[in-house]
Write a structure and sequence with these properties.
Layout (H helix, E strand, L loop, with lengths): L5 H4 L9 H5 L14 H6 L3 E2 L2 E3 L5 E3 L2 E9 L5 E9 L9 H19 L10 E5 L19 E5 L4 E2 H7 L6 H16 L2 E2 L8 E6 L2 E6 L6 E2 L29 H17 L10 H9 L16 H10 L10 H13 L3
Parallel strand pairs: 1-6
Antiparallel strand pairs: 2-4, 3-4, 4-5, 5-7, 6-7, 8-10, 9-12, 10-11
Length: 339
């Protein structure tokens, strides 16, 4: 992938120094087929100037303000998208320049992995919006044009747990399988997601019904490739017990542990150790080796085989866990059996 041309590259701000690293092709290229609008993105060198963004904020996620928009393609299609506008995180004792640099690194990490992905169960990345192209007061701190906004596909069903709350009769195992297949795809290309949890699984309407897709690659890493120091991104208790101190090197095994917890919550609709108001205590119980009780997570889709699969995936020792490929194969069989 070539870099943005000089006329556009000057608008990258502090992100500019990370552009070569971000846009370099990985040693293993995940893309099998180019996604919709890929030729258009190529022509713009991943820099989009044809996105119409709504003025009202749609949502907030982490240190970003989320806007809905429309990507107008060269062949006159209107593609619904999300525009993720980042705000600098000003830490005590750190300068504004430090905040800009940290945010630029986070974006670079996410884009380096995400831009190469193409799978039905992965939210599609479309490109970057450069320069002064988004509102200034989108978050607690003004968003200044020091780094780009990220443009990705819009998922009309929202987060999986919100979707299931609105559609309580929906089957859950097929959605869990969808997500598993997304993580299998990442692991096939030696990518660890790093932030597996229900909030990062979205629902998209298709011609065949609905499909679950995985999102948020801010903590993802290409295993064995050069990277910035690990950034701990988590929601208690979705973090493997071996992740205790910096550098936070997420692995395929940490993804598997968190996926098992995520699958349990999706299937049952009940949080891990829901009685713990302090979610850190839920994480602490997992770290000590305690696991959820099946009686607390009853569901018509929680068969003995499904429960056994979860138990084999959240074992304490990382090297004793199942692979995502084995998990997806088992879920495919169990889902087709009508469990």
């Amino acid at each position: 992938m070539s870099l943005p041309p000089d006329s556009e590259q000057k608008n990258l701000g502090v992100f500019n120094q990370h552009a070569i690293w971000t846009f370099a092709d990985p040693s293993v290229m995940p893309v099998a087929e180019r996604p919709e609008a890929w030729e258009q993105i190529q022509s713009h060198q991943n820099v989009l100037d044809n996105v119409e963004m709504e003025s009202e904020r749609f949502a907030r996620g982490g240190s970003a303000a989320i806007y809905k928009g429309i990507l107008k393609t060269d062949d006159n299609r209107n593609v619904p998208v999300i525009v993720k506008c980042y705000a600098a995180i000003h830490e005590p004792g750190k300068s504004r320049a430090d905040a800009y640099e940290k945010t630029a690194q986070l974006i670079a990490k996410e884009v380096k992995v995400w831009r190469n992905l193409n799978h039905p169960n992965v939210v599609r990345f479309y490109g970057l919006m450069m320069g002064n192209t988004f509102p200034w007061n989108t978050f607690f701190v003004p968003v200044e044009p020091q780094y780009p906004a990220v443009v990705c596909a819009f998922c009309d069903g929202g987060k999986v747990m919100d979707y299931l709350q609105k559609n309580p009769e929906a089957r859950r195992l097929p959605l869990v399988l969808d997500a598993a297949q997304g993580y299998v795809y990442l692991h096939k290309y030696n990518i660890a997601h790093g932030d597996v949890k229900p909030e990062n699984i979205l629902i998209k309407t298709t011609a065949d019904g609905v499909r679950a897709v995985i999102s948020d690659f801010g903590s993802s890493r290409m295993i064995d490739e050069a990277d910035f120091p690990g950034t701990l991104s988590y929601t208690w208790p979705y973090i493997a017990p071996e992740i205790k101190k910096s550098p936070y090197l997420y692995t395929k095994a940490t993804d598997v542990f968190c996926f098992a917890l995520t699958a349990l919550v999706i299937i049952s609709g009940v949080e891990i150790f829901a009685e713990e108001e302090d979610r850190y205590m839920a994480r602490h119980r997992l770290e000590l080796g305690e696991r959820p009780n099946r009686d607390d997570h009853k569901s018509s889709e929680m068969s003995d085989e499904v429960w056994k699969l979860l138990e084999e995936s959240w074992v304490q020792e990382a090297d004793g866990r199942k692979s995502m490929g084995d998990i997806a194969s088992a879920l495919s069989r169990l889902s087709s059996d009508g469990n």
